[in-house]
Structure formats: C-alpha cells, structure tokens
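Students often ask why we bother encoding 3D structure as a string. The short answer is that it lets us treat folding as translation between two languages. Here is a chain of 71 residues written in the first language.
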Amino acid sequence: MITISATDVGARVTTRRRVPGGFRDAVGTLESWADGVLQVRKRDGTLVEIPEETLVAGRVVPAAPPRPGQK
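And here it is in the second language, the structure alphabet:
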C-alpha cells in the first residue's frame, strides 16, 4: 500500500520498489518527488532515486531513534 505523496517531502519514509529479480527497500527523508521520481536520503547520506512506476509500498514513519552515544 502506498500512503505517501509529494506532500510528504521532508518526512521520514519507508519505501519498497520493484527491481530486477525482486524488491528493494529504502528508509530515509523524502527529499523530493517531481517528474515521476522520488528522492530518498538515507541515514548514511546516500540519495536513492525511485521511479514512481516502480514504487509498490510507501508510508511515513517516526523519526529514527538516536544512535548509541548520541543524544
């Protein structure tokens, strides 16, 4: 089920998309959704581009818990 939209830019999201041979997940901040492409910035700084037609699931999720040693 896809419950995210372009209005969720700036929110933390989880996504699942079709790729050759299966599916791939990405969790991070939805940085943009334009011209049929979502951009999700993962915690490690990687920017994942997801063509809208490959998206099979997506939803807004709570903020990530702090990493050990961080406040």
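Translate back mentally: The longest strand covers residues 22-34. Keep this in mind for the problem set.
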